[in-house]
Amino acid sequence: MNDFKQEPAFDHRWLEALAQWCKKGQEANAGLVDLYLERRLELRLHIRRNAQWIEECRTEGAAVRTRTDLRHEIVAATGTSPKTIAHLLSGPLDTRELHLQRPLPPPDLDAPRGWRNTAEALVEATSLSDATVFLFERRAAIIRPGQWQEIHTPLLIRLQTPIPSSSSLLATWNHAGLTEWAPLVSASPQHKGWQPDSGEQLPVVFTAGTSGVLMHELVGHLLEGDVISNGGSPLDAGEASIVGPPTLFVTDDPTRFDLPGAFSSDDEGVTAEAIPLLEGGIVCGALCDRFTANKLGRTPGRGRRAAWNRAPVPRMSNLVAAPGRTNPEALENDQKRGLVVTRLSGASVDPRSGRVILRVEQGWELRHGRRRRALAPFDLGGDVLGILRLIDPNLGNDPTPDWRLGWCLKAGLTLPTGSEAPTMLVRSLEVV
């Protein structure tokens, strides 16, 4: 549960004044789209064998987007003072009066009380002597002509070790699963373990939240508006296309504040709402910012910024696959020979070719329904539509968040995302 209470990040009267100022720009046909303000705090607690120290980084900035005949343009600057904002708006507007505004100073961004004790306890749970704990806080506001909205996101905590073979953890502050996940960070992959032969086709059971990563690649990225509008999505055969089993329901839900990708509204000011993507294995939605929504005739709400000086782009938030009714153990027990994946170190999808690669970090060989040899790291691959059609309709009754891969990298931009999914069986995947 993310129970850290946040104060308003900006003076609300100041935001209202800016909204009315932007409205003047709209009436003057200045092409003003929006004004974005953001403040960030990042704390790092470094714990080493004989020392501890804290690093602190505070940043803030503002950005103005304007519309031309062919595209949106963005101009950004460090700081959120009236002088900075007046400078940014000086192109489309007469901003001489803005210099005279005196908004209330914003409260400092501070970590929750006792955060260092919590961080130390997490590191202690890993049984490692060296680790770094990050705390991320982001506060923002979006101002459009005549309206404004503060953007709330969860406080995030990340646990990372300097050991290349160990995992990292990303979760919301005070999540109930932190004490369970922290000891798993130090569990290294079995590099001397067994791996199947390249080219083999085997049934694979994705458990411990790893099926959320599978859905992230197979469904989430391929239904983002920019991928669809560029004609590069194998799922873009129009809505009502059957791509998976009738039991598969996948939703992108930014209102799940227990997962890292949550927000109260997107970075274009659209109030957060869950968007169904697959219902009964049928494509029924897409993830769009305002630009791609207008282009595709879809609903906006997923315009996300990687930083205050970046334009919003279509990105998923928290991808949630609904659980089924099957005991997860039954999915393993039915396999004469196959694999169980308990951890993925990464994944990628090529929208043009429709090819997915899953990097297995930990798991087990299955023989006659029993876990045998531990797996060494290797890759699994396949075709997007082929994999979706090979998902067994018997889904596990164990919805599980994935704590391992919370940062999503796309086109060089990193954003926090979350996932929750039950155990899933893919009846055949190729060993790469």
Quaternary organization:
single chain
Described by strand count, sense and barrel closure, the largest sheet is: 7 strands, antiparallel
Percent of residues in helical segments? 10-25%
Class of secondary structure makeup: alpha+beta
Shape, principal axes of CA atoms: globular
Query: Helical element count?
Result: 9
**How much of the residues is beta strand, in percent?**
35-45%
- The total count of strands amounts to 23
**Gap from first CA to last CA:** 39 Å
Average pLDDT taken over every residue: 92
Low-confidence stretches: none
Radius of gyration: 23 Å
Tell me the count of domains. Answer: 2
How would you summarize what this structure contains?
This protein is of the alpha+beta class.
Can you describe this structure?
The chain has 432 residues and is an alpha+beta fold. Helix content is 17%, strand content 36%. The strands form 5 sheets. Strands 1, 2, 3, 4, 5, 6 and 7 form a 7-stranded antiparallel beta sheet that branches. It has a 6-stranded mixed beta sheet with strand order 11-10-9-14-22-19, with helices on one face. The chain is globular, with a radius of gyration of 23 Å. The model has no long low-confidence stretch (mean pLDDT 92).
